[in-house]
Write a structure and sequence with these properties.
The protein has 728 residues and is an alpha+beta fold. The protein is built from 26 helices and 26 strands. Among the domains are: 69 residues, Alpha-Beta Plaits; 84 residues, Calcium-transporting ATPase, cytoplasmic transduction domain A; 142 residues, Rossmann fold, CATH 3.40.50.1000; 102 residues, Calcium-transporting ATPase, cytoplasmic domain N (3-Layer(aba) Sandwich).
């Protein structure tokens, strides 16, 4: 991205509006290029040092800075230097790198909701400390006017503090009641309000007991849990926004024979668009010029490139591999194939509302029970004493001491600890109920290309090929960006082969590369172009003079940890399925390689979603793991879903969990952590219940002083938090 030109200040407004020719001539040229890159694999200070040294050693780089926390590099380079050049440079240093769109990263710099919660937490904490100091005097024996003065000062501190700090609970409780349902904030709000009303009444009547300190502590502990939970979600949102920024939504439009870079949103039907090798189709269209090959793996799951020629239709999201293409847009914006897939996702996501968190489930049982118990205590004491003041005081004590604080902390304390543990293992929790749903999984459905495999070919028969053929193939492969050529080059270089001497090396888009070797033409590419017989599986062929064609066989490279993840899931008793849009031989071979019994090939996006629905209707609890556009509907339809960080934006949005990095091994560990987290949540509910069982009889019997209420809430809250920390 190039900085805009700036004109020098002028004393005359007219001159400023219309600068002279001399001032235009004096304007500086294009400023330095500002490039932002994501570096997902850096993990230590040594990585920072190596990246910065490598960047600063390049003459094109003016300055660089690496942020380990954000895993991001900010580069200032010479004008005209592109992000792709810097990506190539860093990949040469051994670091995975992706271009970021800085415009999409600005939203991560502000966190108004977090600041709001933190401010309310600070206010409630400060007010709570002051009221507790005043309460010490009351508990120590202050009486009559002195006690009343301390109570009124406490009221002056507590009422405005709670009115401000308790708004998140008040709003949530009102929203639930307005819809005719209960959540955990309803008993919390009722306890706070009843404690305040009772305390003010008691203070006005010069009573001995007030609950200002207990109400403030309740708000403080709950806000602490709410803020911790928010911070976990904020990390997920920030990382998700950064992943979204990996998509660079720009295209090259042809106008009067000249190329202009425009936003994809500015394209219209009928526009001519140039797509360079390595570029992604920005719209649906028809090829009008050029020959190449298309990578459709993210859309259909096919691993083999498809020949592209004039007259052929292409879809948004397909990748142009070998030659420049000019296409005429036939569908743009929301009418493209990408957005049609979004309709499938919307239908599937509508079912997400059926998931209820354990906290809300507990609230449905807990809230009515607490309210009924408090009402019975009020009625019983009123009938026993005919004293409204005594009955209301005891009812308030019952409602406070039943400890909604511990129940309110039960879930966020555990999810914060579990999410932190999974984040350190490379998994990002996006949805609030994802952990609870992941714990119930008994069936795992994997996509193939880009999920279990990297979507890049790996040469399998190098050790059985003649040295001369490998050296010639290496020389030809160096002249192509085709995935199979790149695989030959990498395998041959790793094995120590040197390229043969060739001349007149040219690439024929859609067919392969050719050159002169020892005065004769040699070719590397398609079977029909090299005189070879096409067989099953992924292969390319080398035509040598006077010799039969030599065939190079490939398989799709497994993702790191794929075998370990599948084996661990099967060992854990889960059914594992492989559903892919790739060809039957490729899917069958991978299933046999990984020990997966159930597999489906050549599946369309709707087929994947239908199969997930069918498994769920048969009683299975499905975890879907996928990365492509053809997986988005299935990801949204599954009980819980995971997508890799390398997945397209649509897949990441549809999933509940994002797998950072390329290793699949953490998936099995995440299921174990989720089960542990769910057990801790239930244990926390049990801890809160035990405290209630011990404390409620004291409250109902009229022995619950403010000190007892405060100690009960504090002890149960601390115990719940310590139990949650066991997950770390």
């Amino acid at each position: 991205m190039t900085a805009p030109m700036r004109q020098s200040p002028s004393a005359c407004p007219a001159c400023a509006a219309a600068p002279s020719a001399q001032s235009l001539a004096d304007m500086p040229g294009p400023g330095p290029a500002e490039i932002a890159l994501s570096l997902p694999t850096i993990h230590c200070a040594g990585c920072i040092s190596k990246v910065e040294r490598g960047l600063d050693a390049d003459p094109r780089v003016l300055s660089s800075r690496v942020n380990l926390t954000l895993k991001r590099a900010s580069i200032e380079a010479n004008p005209g230097v592109t992000a792709q050049e810097m990506v190539t440079l860093l990949e040469g240093l051994g670091f995975e790198a992706h271009e970021l769109d800085p415009g999409l990263l600005t939203a991560t710099t502000t966190d108004r909701a977090g600041r709001d919660l933190l401010m309310r937490l600070a206010v409630s904490g400060f007010a709570s400390m002051n009221v507790m100091l005043l309460s010490v005097s009351v508990w120590s024996g202050a009486e009559d006017a002195t006690r009343d003065m301390f109570h009124w000062i406490s009221a002056a501190i507590a009422l405005p503090a709670i009115a401000f700090s308790g708004q998140p609970f008040f709003r949530n409780a009102w929203s639930a009641l307005a819809k005719g349902r209960l959540n955990m904030d309803v008993p919390i709000t009722l306890a706070i309000l009843l404690a305040l009303v009772t305390s003010v009444w008691e203070t006005a009547l010069s009573g001995a007991h007030a609950y200002f300190d207990a109400a403030l502590m309740l708000v403080f502990f709950l806000l602490a849990g709410r803020y911790l939970d928010h911070r976990t979600r904020a990390v997920a949102r920030s990382a998700a926004e950064e992943l979204t920024a990996l998509e660079v939504p720009r295209a090259w439009r042809l106008r009067d024979g000249a190329e202009e870079e425009v936003n994809v949103a500015d394209l219209a039907i009928g526009d001519l668009i140039r797509v360079r090798p390595g570029g992604r189709m920005p719209v649906d269209g028809e090829i009008v010029e050029g020959h190449s090959e298309l990578d459709r793996s993210l859309l259909t799951g096919e691993t083999l490139p498809v020949l592209a020629a004039p007259g052929q239709s292409v879809s948004a999201g397909e990748v142009n591999l070998t030659g420049p293409l000019t296409l005429r847009a036939t569908a743009v914006g929301r009418d493209t194939s990408l957005h049609r897939m979004a309709d499938l996702v919307a239908v599937a996501e509508s079912g997400r509302s059926r998931y209820t968190s354990l906290a809300d489930g507990a609230a449905k049982l807990y809230a009515p029970g607490v309210h009924i118990l408090s009402a019975l205590a009020f009625a019983g004491w009123y009938l026993y004493t005919w004293d409204m003041r005594t009955a209301l005081n005891i009812a308030a004590a019952v409602l406070i001491i039943t400890c909604p604080c511990a129940l309110g902390l039960a879930v966020p304390a555990v999810t914060t600890a579990a999410s932190g543990r999974l984040f350190r293992q490379g998994m990002l929790i996006k949805h609030e109920t994802a952990l609870e749903r992941l714990a119930a999984v008994d069936t795992v459905v994997f996509d193939k290309t880009g999920t279990l495999t990297e979507g890049t070919p790996e040469l399998t028969n190098l050790d059985r090929l003649p040295q001369e053929a490998v050296e010639v193939a290496l020389a030809l492969a160096e002249g192509s960006a085709h995935p199979l050529a790149r695989a030959i080059e990498q395998a041959a270089r790793d094995a120590g082969f040197a390229a043969a001497q060739v001349s007149d090396l040219t690439e024929v888009p859609g067919y392969g590369t050719r050159a002169l070797w020892n005065g004769a033409e040699v070719r590397l590419g398609r079977a029909s172009w090299t005189g070879a017989e096409a067989g099953a599986g992924t292969a390319t062929h080398l035509a040598l003079p006077g010799q039969p064609p030599v065939t190079f066989h490939f398989t799709d490279r497994l993702r790191p940890g794929a075998e370990a993840a599948v084996a661990a899931l099967i060992k854990d008793g889960k059914e594992v399925y492989l559903i892919s849009g790739d060809t039957t031989p490729a899917v069958k071979a991978l299933a046999e390689r990984l020990g997966i019994t159930y597999w489906m090939a050549e599946a369309l996006p709707a087929d994947k979603a239908s199969r997930v629905h069918a498994l769920e209707s048969e009683g299975a609890t499905v975890l879907m793991v996928g990365d492509g556009l053809n997986d988005t509907a299935a990801l949204a339809a599954a009980h819980v879903s995971i997508s890799p960080a390398s997945a397209l934006d649509a897949a990441r949005v549809a999933s509940d969990i994002v797998l950072l990095g390329s290793n699949l091994a953490p998936i099995a560990a995440a299921c174990t952590t989720a089960r542990s987290a769910t057990r801790r949540i239930r244990e926390n509910f049990q801890i809160a219940t035990v405290y209630n069982i011990v404390a409620v009889p004291l409250a109902v019997a009229g022995f619950a002083t403010p000190l007892i209420a405060a100690l009960a809430m504090s002890t149960s809250s601390i115990t719940v938090s310590l139990n949650a920390l066991r997950l770390r």
